[in-house]
Amino acid sequence: MTDHSVLVNLLVIFTVSIAVVFAFHKSRLPAIAGFLFSGALIGPHGLNLISDMDTVQVLAEIGVVLLLFTIGLEFSLAQLASMRRLMFLAAPLQVGGVLLIAWLGATLVGLSWRQGLFWGFLFSLSSTAVVLKALAERGDNDSIHGRATIGILVFQDLAVVPMMLLMPILASQSGGGSLAILLTLGKSILVIALVIAAAGYLVPKLLEHIVRSRSRELFLLTIIVLCLGIAWLTSLGGLSLALGAFIAGLVISESEYSHQAMAEVLPFRDSLQSLFFVSVGLLMDWRVLFEHPLPVGGLLVTVLLVKFASGAGAVLLAEVPLRSAVMVGIALAQVGEFSFLLAQQGKESGLLQRDSYQIFLAVSVLSMIAAPFLMQWSPNLARRVEAWQRLRHWLPSRTTAHVLHVEGKQIRMKDHVIIVGYGLNGKNLARVLGDTEISYVVLDLDGDIVSRKASHGVPVYYGDATNPNVLRQMKIEDAKVMVIAISDPFMTRRAVQVAKELNPKLQVVVRTRYLRELEGLHQLGADNVVPEEFETSIEIFALVLRTYKLPQEFVTQKSEQIRHEGYALLRRSGLPELAHHLRSGTLTDTEVETCRIDEDSPARGKTLTEISLRPRTGASVIAWTRGGVTQSNPSEQTRLLGGDIVVLLGTRRQIRQAMELLVSMGAE
After folding, report:
1. How far apart are CA 425 and CA 511, in angstroms?
2. 550 by DSSP, 3-state: which?
3. What is the DSSP code string of 461-521?
4. Are 290 and 251 members of one domain?
5. Which secondary structure element, helix H or strand E, spans residue 650, and what is its range?
6. Is the pLDDT of residue 173 over 60?
7. Is 40 buried (19+), middle (13-18) or exposed (0-12) by CB count in 10 A?
8. Is 317 helix (H, G, I), strand (E, B) or coil?
9. Which CATH number belongs to the domain containing residue 294 in this structure?
């Protein structure tokens, strides 16, 4: 008879997870905590609903492999090079700080240096899966603290390799074997180099032939084989499967097929990644909390504080702002999934006894459960710490001290533009302002960019736009416009608020990613908000129209029409009362549509009475926009001009007839 135990286990896991995560969602609790709780609930130390733990662990490990593969896809060698300050300064300091404190702590409690270093290995790693999911849910991947956190996480994942290679030395009671370990480490580095070189040469050609087949199934299978195959090859060199998967993703990220590969793998990654969180909860023996409450509680608090201090301190030394450093420290405060792999080896080699192993599991799982809650709370804590620092001046503020050029020149200008962020948007704006001889200054938190561009004469300064002292140095009280073109939503909101407090007359223009951020930014004082989501939609339909060979003049006209109407309605809130009725279903048979009166429209120059729109079609004009200003309930004597936008209310048939009347039949 066929054994369906695996299917039954998966059915139990996903069914319970759906119920628990849904309840957590309704309670506004993180989904990750829901998965961890689900595992603890159905595990052998809970309701004991899972009979085959080994199969679940294998599937969970595949989830971690796919996670690291997608991380590699999202990265590129250029991005890793741009993170060199974090990768080679902050990250080693963070890991080294935890190792040093763990070694000192082990010495104080009477453990050997080998055991102390091993515990340092376990606690120096943070959970890539937990942190990346939490960052993605908050939209913080591109923020300053998000990039810093990801850079350190990548270094930690790479650091797993030498840690695993050093395990035999720590487990050995003799002092020999160093030469053998060095040889193994050299072999591993050689394996990585050969895999990257071979894959970088063969993978693009292979994918090119696969893509020509126009078979989505074949492409998906190829991506999975490349991911698992490269991971397996690197494991032969003594490396972890997850690190091999990261290398595979990094190789494919350099090709033009990386985005499609990401789209194909995401569903598998998300489902198996959730299984990983459940599997971590399954390991938890809740009886340890009652048998050893003080060791578990004390060690948990110690781990959280030490990892917070090491993470925040390391990125502060890498010149990351204090607020972002606090958020990085909190994000790295939990124990990572690779620590479980090291703990398994330590248990097998005698470095961990059974009770110690269970205490480690309890601390690790509890830290993972706490991580999403702490990350939700981190912006408030960061804001309070920053405010307290400004009040007490207990930490030197580099962003204030180094905001000016080395020559010490004072900024003397008026009616100038302050550009926050020297990325693509900031760079293009600076070039146009320079061509039109409009004075401007640029603020950026990338020290390399500041040094490089300042040497070429660009008025760019290192500074935090959320710091009032920095903005005063930029003469914000005399500035006319401030353009915020950064990807950090938290910094953007704070910068708008601070800028408006310092200069209420300042015109603040904000670039944001999503339409949902518009209302909040306007409430904080932003005068104009440019959502990339809206601009992308315009570019998409413009490309579609060009594909159908429509005249460029017509495409440009339509783009400007949509842009004009859209921003006008966004600024005027788009008739919220009517929108409420439409959403609630009160006017289920009624629609709202806009119509532009062109210069050649037969309705131009006529009043609504002369057009007789309502008697002839049944549709009503409920609002009209002229010159970017929207007015509701126009009178029948309102005379329509070219460029006006009228808002029509009626059934679909009535609106269609009204638009035909305004566009082509108004002369009748």
Report:
1. 9
2. coil
3. EE--TT-HHHHHHTTGGG-SEEEE--S-HHHHHHHHHHHHHH-TT-EEEEEES-GGGHHHH
4. yes
5. strand 645-650
6. no
7. buried
8. helix
9. 1.20.1530.20
Cα–chain center distance at 64: 19
Report how far apart the first and last C-alpha atoms of the chain are (Å, whole number).
81
Kind of pairing between the strands at 629-632 and 620-626: antiparallel
What single DSSP character describes residue 87? I
Any idea what the Cα angle at residue 536 is, between residues 592 and 480, rounded to 5°? 95
What radius of gyration, in Å, describes the C-alpha atoms of the chain?
Answer: 30
**Chain centroid to CA 291: how far?**
40
Tokens of 251: 């190789």
Tell the burial category of 54 from Cβ atoms under 10 Å away from its Cβ (0-12, 13-18, 19+).
exposed
**Are the C-beta atoms of residues 492 and 508 closer than 8 Å to each other?**
no
pLDDT digits (tens, 9 = 90+) for 367-421: 888 888 888 888 888 877 876 766 555 555 444 334 444 334 456 678 899 999 8
**Residue 174 scores a pLDDT above 60:** no
Which of 342, 365, 390 terminates a domain? The answer is 390
Taking residue 562's Cβ as centre, other Cβ atoms within 10 Å add up to 17
Number of domains in the chain: 3
Tell me the whole-structure pTM to 2 decimals: 0.62
260 lies in which domain range? Answer: 52-390
From residue 504, alpha-carbon distances to 415, 416, 500 in Å are 14, 15, 5
Count how many residues are written for the chain: 668
What tokens were used for 570? 């966004």
CA distance 240 to 601: 69
Give the range among 90-104, 584-598, 608-622 with minimum mean pLDDT.
584-598
Looking up tokens 């920053």 gives: 386
**What residue type is assigned to position 56 of the chain?**
V
DSSP state, residue 174: S
